[in-house]
Amino acid sequence: MDKLLLLGDEAIAQAAIDAGLSGVFAYPGTPSTEITEYIQDSKQAKELGIRSTWSCNEKTAMESAIGMSYAGKRAMFCCKHVGMNVAADPFMNSAITGANGGLVYIAADDPSMHSSQDEQDSRQYADFALIPCLEPSNQQEAYDMVHYAFDMSEKYHTPVMIRVTTRLAHSRAGVVRRESVKTQNALTLPADKRQYILLPVNAKRHYKTLIAKQADLMCESENHGFNRLIEGTDKKLGIVACGLSYNYLMENFPGGKCPYSVLKVSQYPMPEKLLQKIYDESDELLVLEEGQPIYERLIKGLLKNNKAIHGRLDGTIQRDGELSPNSVAKAVGIEVEGGFEIPSVVAPRPPKLCDGCPHRDSYLALNEAMKDFGDSRVFSDIGCYTLGALPPFNAIYSTVDMGASITMAKGAAEADLKPTVAVIGDSTFTHSGMTGLLDCCVDNIPVTVLILDNDITAMTGSQRSSATGRIESICAGIGVEPAHIRVISPLAKNLEENVKIIKEEIAYKGVSVIIPRRDCIVWANKKRKMLKK
Amino acid sequence: MKIDIILCGVGGMGALSSAAIISKAALEMGMYMKQAETHGMSQRGGDVQSHLRLSDEPIASDLIPEGQCDLILSVEPMEALRYVNFLNKKSGWIITDSNPFVNIPNYPDMAEVEKEINKIPNHIFHDFTKIAKEIGNPKGVNMVVLGAASKYLKIDIEKLEAAVRNNFAKKGEEIVDANIKALRAGREVADKQL
Fold first, then answer.
1. Substitution target from B63, B75, B79, B175 for chain A, most A beta carbons within 10 A
2. Within the 170-189 window of chain A, which residues sit less than 8 Å (CB to CB) from chain B?
3. How many other CB atoms sit within 10 Å of the CB of residue A197?
């Protein structure tokens, strides 16, 4: 078969389609968005009737995937690493229920925080929940692993995680597809009617089953999956290379001629026998992990070992941020001649709100309305509008997690910081803002919430927003007084009127919502082109 | 044969499209390739870059090691300098448009930028934007730069044209033709003047 040119994300998506997927469930988040988008745009997926629309957050997405697996069909959930936090509740418990139809979770991590607020490592979650985790080192492996993951999920009745990082998610290479496409599973209900009823009496039993499964999962890791020990001639050093780090290591040894023994780890649980072998045979170990030093720490243990174990914890590799061919070269003692020094005239070019972006006008109006109250009273959220923290706006003072603008404003107001304002996007509002607004209404806290409605999930590249057409009715339903749900049009010509409305609502001693409504400028252009066609 | 390229610019200038086009052409020629790029927040007017690696043999790393890049292809002069730590000191080339894209208040003095580019032994610093404007496709600077670079890439111009067609097919015949014209204009100027 011909090679397809695919991003790591797209390789995962195509593999899932070919592996008999019935549905993908996700909320957009860099670097995972392209997986679901690929399935949405795929003609093949449409013909096969694979469901793929966006969910309103990662928790609802994962629960729907669990429901599809309950019904016996193959389901996939995708998120960026911090999305795992939102989905953590169903995630942990789905390890206890186990899977019926094949259930695969894709977690796309972002070490170096290219587009994120932290660099947490999702392998930690897989270990936490006692489920297997696969970590591809290239696009072809990503494709092959999805097939393996679905098969393993059904064989051992467990959800399986595939963990990728930005560099693989957003890197293209040629991928060879399988010749045949698997037929989707038929609707099949769980054989054991108690499988999904996590009453303590059942959960205790299921947990024992999950623990008992670990021996089988270890056996897969040692013998059948994607791990392998490549023996070297120089026993001074043994290298445990996890996921993508294997590539950076091999980049430094042209033709793959690494003199040291290498344990290539692309599947967890960590294969203990192979690890013991490389440890016994080598004088020292170097552990290469893209992300956090999870296995370096586990291998080291709490007490001193006889042999030195190098990695991020002893400074052989930098403690944070992505690996690179050069950082790995240094760790194995290879001198690299670098390039030129970057001249000091090169100025940083941070991202910014687009020209014509409605958020610009919203922030100009908000800043004007807030100028008499002083700084540090505006809480914000995750999205394009987070760029309002940068000059020339300097309009917001927090961006912590999805939905936190409203709840943090509430907590600060309850600490007597008055007035407080929350700024949140339409899609983020339906993701995790609604329940916070309900808290405000129940306690009747004077908070003014600006829901910036640009008709789309903009930051990740124009995905459908669950909020579209529903914001006013949601707010009214939650309990915001209809007179204090105000829609404004963020345009320069309306500045004066918009400032007046914001001031009025800030003065109101209850919960108020202002909805500045105008299409994202990128989305508006896309819509125009679509209409033209 | 092995060639490592960094394509760079500012979000929205088409650096990533150029990368996708070279990748498609290379795959068509049966080469191994890897192409890593920036998505997400940085695409909003920030700096964007793509590491593109082509080879007759399998490629290990998605990222180019520092000091090994053969060519920096940039649609903006200061952005070309941002990645010179990756450039091979002996044989690396910079090909860049000479027009600054000023969307930050502290954009350096252009004379300083030019001086720094001149310090790199192998460089082409040229007004490709002018060519794009002359052929009536001011947004096609990336394609003009790519056309000029094609002289130095070991990829047939026909394969590149086919990849341009494939890449822009969704956007209609008019856009495809405009981009092919820009690609050819870039190649012509490279053949005649550079």
1. B63
2. 170-174
3. 12
Report DSSP state, residue A224.
I
Nearest to A513 by CA among A449, A469, A427: A449
Residue B16 and residue A259: Cα distance in Å, rounded?
A: 37
At A505 the three-state DSSP class reads helix
Q: How far apart are the C-alpha atoms of B31 and B52, rounded to whole Å?
A: 12
Gap between the Cα atoms of B194 and B191, Å rounded: 6
Tell whether the model's pLDDT for residue B171 goes beyond 70.
Answer: yes
Closest listed residue to residue B74, CA positions, set B88, B87, B55, B61: B87
**A30 closest CA partner among A98, A78, A91:** A78
Nearest CA in chain A to B30: A3
Structure tokens belonging to residue A308: 């030195």
Strand partners, B9: B48
* CB contact residues (below 8 A), chain A span 318-347, against chain B: 324-326, 329, 336-343, 345-347
- Percentages helix, strand, coil for chain A, rounded to the nearest 5? 45, 20, 40
Mutate to test the interface with A, among B44, B89, B173 (most CBs of A within 10 A): B44
Angle between helices B15-28 and B157-168 (to 10 degrees): 120
If you search the block for the tokens 């993908």, which residue do you land on? A24
To which residue do tokens 């690494």 refer?
Answer: A258
Pairwise CA distance, residues A150 & A87, whole Å: 20
Q: Each residue of A430-446: b (16+ CB within 10 Å) or e?
A: bbbbbebbbbbbeeebb
Distances in whole angstroms, Cα of residue A258 to Cα of each of A185, A216, A233, A239, A255: 44, 32, 9, 10, 9
Write the pLDDT tens digit of every residue in A306-343. 899 999 999 999 999 999 999 999 999 999 889 999 99
State whether the Cα torsion B118-B144-B65-A254 is positive or negative: negative
CA distance A503 to A321: 43
**Model confidence, pTM:** 0.94
- For Cα atoms A315, A321, A324, give the angle at the middle one, nearest 5 degrees: 85
Q: Please report the pLDDT score of residue A1 as a whole number.
A: 61
Tell me the shortest Cα–Cα distance from B55 to chain A, in angstroms. Answer: 12
Is the N-terminal amide bond of A392 cis, ω within 30° of 0? Answer: yes
Return the closest-CA partner of residue B3 out of B52, B44, B50.
Answer: B52
Pairing of strands A267-268, A133-134: antiparallel
pLDDT in tens, B52-99: 999 999 999 999 999 999 999 999 999 999 999 999 999 999 999 999
Report the interhelical angle of B157-168 vs B141-149 (nearest 10°).
Answer: 160
| pLDDT score of A256 | 82
Task: State how far the Cα of A171 lies from the Cα of A194, in Å rounded to an integer.
Answer: 43
DSSP 8-state class, residue A28: -
Q: Is the pLDDT confidence value at A187 over 80?
A: yes
In A, minimum Cα distance to B28 occurs at A3
Look at phi and psi of residue A273 and say left if phi exceeds 0, alpha if psi is from -120 to 50, else beta: alpha
More confident residue, B42 or A143: A143
Residue with tokens 């009745």: A157
Q: How is residue A252 written in tokens? A: 């430094």
Gap from B104 CA to chain A (nearest CA, Å): 7
* Distance in angstroms (rounded) separating the CA atoms of residues A313 and A127: 20
8 Å CB contact of A342 and B67: no
Contact B8, B74 (CB under 8 A): yes
Look at residue B41 in the predicted model and tell me its pLDDT: 67
What ipTM was estimated for this complex? 0.89
How, if at all, do strands A284-288 and A309-310 pair? parallel
Element (H, E) at A424: strand A420-425
